[in-house]
C-alpha cells in the first residue's frame, strides 16, 4: 500500500480508499486490483466470525493476521474470505482505543 485516505460520515460509516502498487495483477480479481473488489466488515471476535463464516459455507482465504497499516501497527486482526456466491470479503477486528492516528488526522475510522 502506498497511500490511504479515510472518508468519514460524522458518527456513521467510513470509506477507506487505498492505492496499491502491485505488478502481479490478474484474474480473478484480488483485494488490491483496481475498482471495488471487496467489502470489509468489522467484527467483535474474528475467531468466532471466521467459524460462523465457514459454517455458512464460506471459504477462508487467509488465517487471521495482524493489521498492517501505520495507524493499526499490528493492533487487531484481519482475514480474507469468499462467500458461497464468490464475493471477496474482509473481516477485521481491532480495539479502536489502541489505534495510533497522526496528531493532525482529520478523520478517524468509525467503529460501531
UniProtKB/TrEMBL annotation:
| Coiled coil spans | none
Q: Which residues form the VOC domain?
A: 1-94
Return the Pfam families for the record.
Answer: Glyoxalase
The protein here is known as VOC domain-containing protein
Amino acid at each position: 500500500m502506498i497511500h490511504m485516505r479515510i472518508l468519514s460520515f460524522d458518527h456513521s460509516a467510513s470509506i477507506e480508499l487505498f492505492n496499491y502498487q502491485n505488478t502481479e495483477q490478474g484474474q480473478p480479481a484480488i483485494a488490491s486490483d483496481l475498482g471495488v473488489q471487496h467489502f470489509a466488515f468489522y467484527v467483535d471476535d474474528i475467531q468466532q466470525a471466521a467459524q460462523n463464516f465457514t459454517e455458512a459455507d464460506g471459504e477462508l482465504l487467509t488465517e487471521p493476521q495482524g493489521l498492517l497499516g501505520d495507524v493499526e501497527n499490528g493492533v487487531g486482526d484481519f482475514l480474507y474470505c469468499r462467500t458461497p456466491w464468490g464475493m471477496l470479503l474482509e473481516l477485521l477486528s481491532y480495539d479502536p482505543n489502541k489505534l495510533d492516528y497522526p496528531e493532525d488526522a482529520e478523520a478517524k475510522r468509525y467503529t460501531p
